[in-house]
Amino acid sequence: MGGKILFVTGNSHKLDEANRILSPYGISLEMAVCEKLEIQADTLEEVASFAARTAAWRIGSPVLVEDSGLFIDALGGFPGPYSSYAFKTIGCRGILRLMDGFDDRSASFRCAVAYCAAGAEPVLFSGASGGSIATTARGARGFGFDPIFLGKGSRLTYAELDEESKCMASHRGEAFRRFAEWLLGA
Ligand code: ITT
User: Fold this and answer.
1) Which CATH class is domain 3-185?
2) What are the φ and ψ backbone dihedral angles of 3, each rounded to 5 degrees?
3) What is this structure's pTM?
């Protein structure tokens, strides 16, 4: 592949993970100097599409946007599309407190990646990783809710996994690999 693709995000962890996932495909991303315009919507796909369309129009070149979140079954999918806000306000400790008394701790991380060329419609790629909410926060790697998320069948939280293992298992890994296969096949 030629030059780098612009990734509209303010989250450097997302950029690092996406680059790790895409490097076997010869694709590399750089952070775009552009605001990610986030609408309030029920789905990650709507949020990512809108932000990608606006950024592509502003910058005048193809862009990638990714919207992701933690969906907890016992909380009706909360925090879901509001994960960034929930992380900044109540954080991992607040989520653990909300889960007090629930036997069902199942949850999933989800991710919507939108690729958009200027003036075109965004193309969407989704990924999900199932698991559960741990009873205590553990681990120092990753970001966001990683210390309280256990992947399916794993006793380690995402924050205890090495970067490669997280990217193999994660919602982001699935969505960006789908994007790469589309881009290289397109
Ligand atoms: P940008 O909007 O600038 O891309 P952001 O961190 O605000 O960065 P989102 O709006 O997509 O991103 O919010 C996603 C939130 O969901 C993020 O802040 C984390 O709290 C959580 N999250 C998403 N993916 C995660 C992951 O792989 N590990 C841990 N937490 C994650």
Assistant:
1) alpha beta
2) -75, 180
3) 0.96
Ligand 1 centroid from CA 25, angstroms: 24
What mean pLDDT is predicted for residues 68-84? Answer: 97
Structure tokens at 111: 């991710």
- Confirm or reject: Cβ of 144 under 6 Å from ligand 1: yes
Q: Whose CA is nearest to atom 2 of ligand 1?
A: 9
Active site (annotated) includes residue 67: yes
Residue 137 has pLDDT above 70, yes or no: yes
Tokens of residue 116, six digits: 């958009």
Residues 136, 156 contacting (CB under 8 angstroms): no
Average pLDDT over every residue of 130-149: 98
Structural domain boundaries of the chain? Answer: 3-185
- Nearby residues of 94 by Cβ (< 8 Å), 6 or more positions away: 86
Please tell me if the CB atom of residue 124 comes closer than 6 angstroms to any atom of ligand 1. Answer: no
What size, in residues, is the chain?
A: 186
Supply the mean pLDDT for the chain.
Answer: 96
